[in-house]
Every structure is written in C-alpha cells, then in structure tokens.
Design brief:
Order of helices and strands: HEEHEEHEHEHHHH
Helix content: 40-55%
Oligomer: single chain
Radius of gyration: 22 Å
Distance between the termini: 39 Å
Number of helices: 8
Shape: elongated
Structural class: mainly alpha
Largest sheet: 2 strands, parallel
Strand order of the largest sheet: 1-5
Number of strands: 6
Length: 254
C-alpha cells in the first residue's frame, strides 16, 4: 500500500511547474486566540495533556530544560496564515516554506507553563464527576531526566511497591487504591516519554518568511488585520490564564 504522503509528494512534483507550492509548518497548535471565539479547541493536544493532568491532580511535577522554549501558536493564527499565503502566492510558482511559531520573536518558557497552570487551577479548581473540587499542589519543576527518575522513584515508585506487597499480604484488601495510584504513575511516565524530545529541545525556528508575508500583506491588503497571525501580538500570561486553560476546562475536561 502506497503511503498517502508519498502520493501527495508525487502529485506536487508533477504539478510544480503549473501550480504555486506553499508549505505551511506550524509548531505546537493551541486553542484559538480570537476566532471563531477565544479558547476553542478539540481534543487533547501536545502540552494540553500535561495541563489537563495537572488540573485533575494527576501530575505533580513539570520537566523543563533550563533553556527550552515552548514553541506554540494558536489555531486561528495558523488558519489566518494559510489564507493570507494562498492569496499572496497565488501567481508565484516558486516553492516557499512558512514557519508559524513563537520561539523566535515571542518565546515563552516551559517553566512559565507550570506557573500559569498553578495560578489558574488554584483560583479555579477543576470539579470532578463526583462534584468535588480538586485541590492541586504547587508541584516542582525538574531540570533533567535524572532528577525526574530520582523524584519518581522516591516519591511514588517505592511507596507503590510497598503498597503492592502490603496489598498482597492482606488478600487484595487495597486493590482499588493500588490500581488508581498505579494508573496515575503510569500516566505520568507515558507523558514524560512522549514529550521528552520537546521539553529539552533548545532549537528556535526562524519565521522570517512569515514576517515578510505579514509585511507585504499589510501593504497590499487593507483587510490584513482581520487575518492576524503575528505571535508578537500574544500576551502569553493573559492568553494561557484567561483563554487557553479555560478553553481546556470547558471543551476538554468537561
């Protein structure tokens, strides 16, 4: 069976001389900034797994490289960039790549994600299915994988092994408690393995082509302000605390 991306590549190469080719490469896509309304999102994406797990009291630590940035862009800015690029490149057949991200001109650190999440859920605790407010702790930020594994071993894995032994000796009396705690630990370990390449990635993607597209479109189109995709316009503190995390609570954590 031929991979669909291979088919697409063959088609693009076949029509390259008669059709303009534009590649839009967004980084991590977050909830909408403004349109169709702030905070709209479907499903759990990238960093949202960590935020959701933290808000539900299942994640107690954050891992962050000291120089790692959180390269993220709201979904509606990605759509706006696609629309503007289609118009701007409609008659130009040369290939061009537009990076859509924030790490180059308006970076936010992974450590900020911990702060934003703690501040939001401290003031607005998540209400679980039983109607109880989930109280979250401050948690800690670990700067290396070795620190994370040490923390998990001392704080969770060893006590969990002791509970497992105790549960066996008492004929599975604490099986429900052990199952819940075991699932939480495994969830954290899966999230860490999944996002390890991102939280320690120190690269920055140059968005000079996207910036040039913004400059040119402003000169040639009066409606450009409607199709905003400039990461410099984002106040990350306001966006995360008042838009993105509330959107997760409303559309994902419900």
């Amino acid at each position: 069976m031929i991979h669909p991306f291979l088919v697409m590549k063959i088609m693009l190469e076949f029509y390259i001389d008669s059709l303009p080719l534009v590649i839009i490469r967004p980084t991590m896509v977050a909830s909408t900034y403004k349109e169709p309304f702030p905070g709209w999102i479907e499903g759990v994406r990238t960093i949202d797994s960590i935020i959701v797990g933290y808000g539900k009291g299942r994640v107690t630590c954050f891992i962050s490289g000291p120089r790692s940035t959180l390269d993220v862009i709201p979904a509606d800015m990605v759509v706006n960039a696609i629309i503007v690029a289609m118009v701007a490149r409609a008659k130009q057949h040369s290939e061009i790549i537009y990076h859509l991200g924030s790490s180059f001109r308006n970076p936010v650190n992974f450590s900020n994600l911990h702060d934003f999440s703690f501040r939001y859920f401290s003031e607005h605790p998540w209400i679980n299915k039983e109607g109880d407010s989930v109280k979250i702790g401050k948690g800690i930020v670990l700067s290396s994988m070795s620190k994370f594994y040490t923390y998990m071993a001392i704080r969770f894995l060893l006590p969990l092994k002791a509970l497992q032994l105790f549960n066996t000796l008492l004929f599975k009396k604490y099986q429900d408690l052990y199952t819940v705690l075991d699932r939480r630990v495994k969830l954290v370990m899966r999230l860490v393995d999944l996002y390890k390449p991102y939280v320690f990635f120190e690269g920055i993607f140059d968005d000079i082509n996207s910036e040039e597209l913004r400059i040119i479109s402003k000169k040639t189109c009066h409606e450009t302000d409607i199709f905003d995709f400039d990461p410099m316009n984002i106040n990350w503190e306001d966006y995360m605390i008042n838009v993105h995390i509330p959107g997760l609570v409303k559309y994902v954590m419900k």
